[in-house]
Amino acid sequence: MDQTHTRALEALQPFIHLATSNSATSPRFVANIITNATSSPQTYVFAELLETSTIQALRSPDTPAEYQGYLKLLEIFAWGTWQDYQATPNLPKLSIEQTLKLRLLSLLSLAATVKPLTYQALMSALSLSSTAELESLVTAAIYASLISARLSPATTPPTVTVTAVAPLRDVQPQSLPKMVTLLTDWETRCGEVVSDLEAEIARVKENAEKRHAKERAYQTHLEEATKRRQEAVEGSNAGSGRGRAGVYGRRGGARLGAGMGNKREADDIDHDDGYWESGDGESGSRMDIDEGAGSRGGGSRHSKRVVGRKA
């Protein structure tokens, strides 16, 4: 789209050169410049041509009436529409090329202001009698890179969906104060939005810092508690070891004392010397010696000899 604007400015330069030349003195010559500029296929901007003194000279009361309307016609081509042309009296009649050019420029303005862009609205604004003429005009605008659009004749209602518009319409001088006011209001709103965003960012950072500080404090408290718990467990383990050693010492001494007591008690008890006392008052040894083995008498078992001392 920017290349289209550049080409339109380049296409206007020859007409500006003619308007600023020394030969551009008669109203008729100036009118011819305007006619040719508005009929050229590549010219879509006209502000620079309008600013020349030669074109502005048509405002003079001395300009013949038949040429006075050309200045207004050029203004309509610069920032007006087809409806403006029809509503303004005493304007020159348009050629076929001028008619197509003004309708294309009007389509740019309508595409930027009217939503949705229906077939019916466009046909009424551009004085077109059929959908075929409208579709042909929109197609010409697309191929000329004036708009990016899609025709939707099957929708209800049929519409032209425009996605991009070339910046080819000039700004009317009377609209500049209004535009300045709008831009100033927009700048003020943007400043307020920026201030609100900065305040929100500061609040988020403050909350984040508080949260981080709380997390650090919690982590520190957790580490201290873990350390105290570990020290307490280590101290408890050390105390348990000393207690076990004392218990083991006491238990060992008890066993030793018990053993010594048992030994003394054993000394007080008669030792078992291997003798026994029979039921009839005789004492004898607990071990019987069989003398029958190898003795006379053969297979009879001899009486056992009791070995031992008598009580």
UniProtKB/TrEMBL annotation:
Comp. bias intervals (Basic residues): 299-311
Region listing for Disordered, in residue ranges: 221-311
InterPro entries on file: COPS7/eIF3m (IPR045237), PCI_dom (IPR000717)
Species per Swiss-Prot/TrEMBL record: Penicillium cinerascens
CC annotations in GO: COP9 signalosome
UniProt domain PCI: residue ranges: 4-165
UniProt biased composition (Basic and acidic residues): 221-232
Cited Pfam families: CSN7_HB_subdom, PCI
Gly residues composition bias: residue spans: 238-260
PANTHER family from the UniProt entry: COP9 SIGNALOSOME COMPLEX SUBUNIT 7, COP9 SIGNALOSOME COMPLEX SUBUNIT 7/DENDRITIC CELL PROTEIN GA17
Name used for this protein in its record: COP9 signalosome complex subunit 7
The keyword Translocase appears for this protein: no
PROSITE patterns per record: PCI (PS50250)
